[in-house]
Amino acid sequence: xxxxxxxxxxxxxFGGLAAQPLALVPRKPLxxxxxxIAERRAWLQxxxxxxxxxxxxxxxxGWALREPDPVRARFDHGMLIAASMPFALVAxxxxxxAIWVMVREPAxxxxxxxxxxxxxxxxxxxHARTLDEGQVCAAWAHEQAHVRHHDPLRxxxxxxxxxxxxxxxxxxxxxxxxxxxxxxxxxxxxxSYGACGVDLAAAIVATARRSxxxxxxxxxxxxxxxxxxxxxxxxxxxxxxxRLLAPLPEPVAAMLWARLSDPxxxxxxxxxxxxxxxxxxxxxxxxxxxxxxxxxxx
Length: 298
Ligand SMILES: [Zn+2]
Prior knowledge:
The protein is mainly α. It is 67% helix and 4% strand. The chain has helices at residues 3-23, 35-47, 51-66, 77-103, 125-128, 133-148, 151-163, 169-192, 197-210, 234-245, 256-259, 262-297, and strands at 111-114, 120-123, 223-225. Strands 2-1-3 form a 3-stranded antiparallel beta sheet. Helix 6 (133-148) packs across helix 9. The chain is elongated. Residues 142, 146, 183, 186, 224-226, 228 line the site of zinc ion.
C-alpha cells in the first residue's frame, strides 16, 4: 500500500480513537467567575479532547517522513480500512460543515463581526438610526472586542473541534456554553474600554427585537454578533442584560494559563508537536511495524 494512503487510514483510525475517550467524559458546569477567565477555561476545555488526536497526527507524520514508499510491511488492509471507516465519516462531516460555513452567505444581522482572517464589523445603518449615540458606541465596542480576539476564526475552529467529537450531545452543549460565556466576556471587555453597560444592554435588546428568527446567529459559525447565542434563548438574554445593568465586577487575578495569549498557546502547541514529529521519525517504525504485522497475523 502507498505510504500516504496508509498514513491517511492510520490518521483516521488512531486520531479518532484518541479523541473519543476524552469526548466521552462529561464535565461539570463552569462555576460563577470572571467571564474573561471562564471563557479561557471553556475554550481550552473544547480543545482538550482533541489534543491527543493532534499528538497522534504529529507522531504519524513523523513516522511517514522516514517510511519508504510503498510500505513494505505485510498487514491486513481490509481490517484497517473497516476500523477507520466510522472515524472517516466523522472527519468528512466535520470537513463538510467547515467548508459549508466558509462558502455560504453570512447571516443577515443588524450588527455583527465577520471574516476569518481579517475580521470586520458590519453595522446596518438602518439599525444604527434606531439607537442613540451611546448605544451605538457600546455595540461598536463590543464588536471591537470580537475583532481583537479574532472570534469568527476561533468560533470556526471550535466548531471543527466540536465536530471531531461528534456525536456526543454534551460536546455540543459545551460549545454552546462557551459561546454564551464568550459574549459575557466581550461585554465586560467593552465596558472596561469605556462602554456603558446600560447602553450595551439597550443595544442588545434592540438588536434582538430587530433580528428575524431566520437569522439566528447560533447557527452561524462564520459571524459573531452582540446577540450571538442569545436570540434563541430568553434565559441567557435576561441573564446577560442583568449582568450589564449591574456594576462591572472587579477583575480577579487570573492564573498563569488564563493569562497566556492565543499566540503564546499556539507557539507552545507547535513546539510540542514538533518534538512529537521528531519522536515519530525516530521511533515510528519500531512501534508501528509490529502493529501492522499483528493485523496480518490475527
Ligand atoms: Zn458578541
